[in-house]
Task: structure prediction
Amino acid sequence: MIIGAGVLGVTAAYHIKSNNPAKSVLLVDRFSDVSQGNTARSNAMFRNTFTSRDNQLLANSTIDFYIDLQEKSKIDIGIRKTGYLWLMSEEQLSRNARHIEKMEKRGIETKVFGGGQVKDRIPSLCTDFAPTDEDASLMNLDPVDGGVFGAKCGRLDPSKLSKFYLERFLNLGGKTSFNTSAQELLLEPKIPLDIEGEPFVWQDASITGASLTGDLQGNFRAGRVLLACGAWTNEILWPAGIDGHVKAKKRQLFKIASNEKLAGLLRCPGFNNLGDLPFLILPKSGCFAKAIPESREFWVGCDDNLGREYIDIPARDLDEYKAEPQYYERNLHAILRKYLPQFENARPDRMWAGLYSYNTLDYLPFVFEEGGIIVIGGDSGSGIMKADSLGRIADALYREGDGAEATLFSGERYLVKKLGFASRDVEREEWVI
Amino acid sequence: MIIGAGVLGVTAAYHIKSNNPAKSVLLVDRFSDVSQGNTARSNAMFRNTFTSRDNQLLANSTIDFYIDLQEKSKIDIGIRKTGYLWLMSEEQLSRNARHIEKMEKRGIETKVFGGGQVKDRIPSLCTDFAPTDEDASLMNLDPVDGGVFGAKCGRLDPSKLSKFYLERFLNLGGKTSFNTSAQELLLEPKIPLDIEGEPFVWQDASITGASLTGDLQGNFRAGRVLLACGAWTNEILWPAGIDGHVKAKKRQLFKIASNEKLAGLLRCPGFNNLGDLPFLILPKSGCFAKAIPESREFWVGCDDNLGREYIDIPARDLDEYKAEPQYYERNLHAILRKYLPQFENARPDRMWAGLYSYNTLDYLPFVFEEGGIIVIGGDSGSGIMKADSLGRIADALYREGDGAEATLFSGERYLVKKLGFASRDVEREEWVI
Result:
C-alpha cells in the first residue's frame, strides 16, 4: 500500500508495480485524483543545475527520462526547455564561479552571459540603479552584471506527468483508491497475544497497515506500507513514534496576465530554441519570473525564509494557506518593478499558496525505512524534478533493503542508504543564491 | 540574553560570562529557579561509553570537569561513580565486540565480565530461562551471558550541579530573571524604515530579542540571543522561520522503595569502590535499574521507541505528561521481574515523566547560529553528561563564529561548526543496545 498519490507517491507506485508485477499494489489518496495537493500548487519547474553530486544524479536522470518521454515516446508532459537564467552582480558571479566550474566539470551544462549580452536579449531589464534611486539603495539592490544560464532546465505540466505514471501503473494492474484518507498507522506485534495494550515494549512490532476513511474504510493491512505524504508526513508518522523529518512552510505564487507592456517580455530570443524568456531569477531574495507565452501570463514569486513560519502539523485543507496580496505588494512587487519596469502596474489576477516539505538537515530528499514503513519525502521544493529517480530508489529499498543500489534511468547506480538517515551520505548543495 | 536555564542554558551562561566578563549576560527562565523543567525530571546518569568520537569528547571532558569539581575542589554535586553494567547475551556481546574494541582504543575504559563473574556479584540475577518458562519465551528474553562495565560512569545530582553553575555565573556579575517566559522572538530589520509589515524579504533582518512576560515584561532586546529551551525549542523558533531540529518524546521513571527482598540488591561489591550495584541495563528494551543505597530506593525505566509518539509542540506545563501505571505494569515490570525476581511484588511509590529532546538526525546534540540566534539542544537525553562541553562550544560560537575551535575542559579542541547543521560533521553513535 502506498499512501499519498502526489508526484512522489505515483512515481514510486509505478516503479514498484513495474518491478514487482506479481505484487498487488494499492495507491490511496484523500483527493479524487493524483497530484491534487501540493504537486498541483507547484511552480512545476525543473533544473539540473546543482553542485551536489546527489542532486545532480537525481535530477539529471529524472529530467532525461521526462525529455525522452516527450521527445522520443511522444507523450506530451508539457515540457518547455526554456532554461533558467540567474541574474547576478559581479560579486555574486565571482562568489559562484567555483560552483559553476564544479557543475561544468560534472557535465552540467551552464553558460555565463556578460551584462551586455543579457541586456541585448532582455532590453527592458534594468541592470543598474542610479545612486539617486532611493528605492534601490534602501532595498540594497544589486546591479545585473551578468547571468548564469542552465540549458537543461525548464517547465512541465505536473498534471500530465502524474497522469502518465498513473496510467502506466493502472495498465500494469495497479489499484487505486481515491477519496480515501489514512487516519493512523497500525503498529502491531509480529506475534499477537490478544492482550489489551499491545504492542508492549518487549514485543517485536512493526507498521502493518493503516486505518482508512472515505471510499475505502476500516483497518487495511498490507505486506508493506510506503508513505509519500509530503507536508503531512509527521501527522501520520509521529503518533507511531517515527519521525517524518519534514517541516512545512508556505510558498506563494502570483499569476500576472500579460498586457501590452509585458507582452514583449514573454519572448526574448537568444537563450533557447523556443525564443522564450528563460525562467528568470533576479539578484534579490530569489525573486523570479516565469513566462508562459502560450497563455500569455507570468508566474512570479520570491523566497521568504527568515520570518516565514514553519508549520508543525499542517491543516489537511490546503485552502487554509492563502496567498497574501500584501506579500505580493510590499515584498515581491517591490523588487520586480525595479528590475523589470514593465511590471510597474502589474497586479495578479490569480494567486495561490502551497506547502514546501523541507528537510532542514541538508535540503535533499530522503528515502528510508523505519519500523517496517518506507518513507519518501523531504524534497524541499524539488520533488517533481527528482521524482523518477526517487521512485526507483523507493522500489530498490522495497525489494532489497537499504544496502541495495537503485538503477536510475540514466543507467547510473545509486546506493539507497545514502538517502536514509541511519547512514545518510549526501553532498550538500552550494548553489543557493 | 540566554533563554532557558536548564542544565544547557546555565552552563552556557556561565562559560559566556566567564569568557566575556565585560558583557552583560541575562539568563531568563519561566520557572522560579535553574533546572526546574526536564533537567529536574532526568535520570541524572552520566557515562563516557560511546563509540562516536564526538560523543566521547563531549562527555569525557564534561565528566572530567564534574569529577574534578567534586574530588579536587570539594564541591559536592552528588557524584557516585557506580559504573554502568550492560548485561548481554552471547549474541549481543559478540555483536558489540567491535564497539568495545573501538572504545578501548580511544581510552574509554570498559571491562567485560563473563556470565559467571556477573552471577557471582549479583547472585539473585536470573541469567537463563528454562525452555518451559512460557513468559520468557513469549517475551523472547535473552539470557545473560556476560556484562560490559563502564567505569567512568555513574550518577550525580542535577540540582546541585546547576546551582554550582548558577552561583559562579552570579559571582561573575551575571543576571537572572526567573518566572519570566519568552513568548516570541523579535525579528527586526538592520535598518528599520518604520513601515508596517517589516521586515520585508528584501531587508537584512535578524533576531534582536524576545517578548517576555512574567517578572520581566515587554520586548527585551540584546546584542545576542541564545536559546536553550530543550523540548520547547520549536515553539520559540518556528514562528521566526528557523527550524529547532528537536522532537520531543515522553520518558518515564518509576521509583521503587527498597524492601527486605530488594535491600540485598542495593549493594553488590566487586564492581566499584562504593560496593554499590552499578547502573544495570538488562538485555531487553533498554530496561534499567538504578540503585540509590543512601535513600534505599531504585529508579527503573525502559525505552519505548516505536509506538511512543513524538510531540510537535509540547505543553508548557510538564504536568501534562504523566507516568503511566500500566506502562510500568505491562511493559517494564514484566521484564524486570524476570531478570531480578526480587522485583516480583515491587510497585512504584512515585513516578514521573519528562521530555527527551531528540535530534532524530544522528542523536547527537547541536550548537548552531541562524538568523542571529544561537541555539543549543538536541541532546537526546544526554544533556547533563555533555553540558560543560556544550557550554564551552556555545561560548566559542558566540565569540568567534562557527569557524572557531572551543577548548574543552580536557584541553582538547573542538571545531564549533561540526555541531552545526550547515557543515555538520559528527561520527554516528553505534553503542545503541
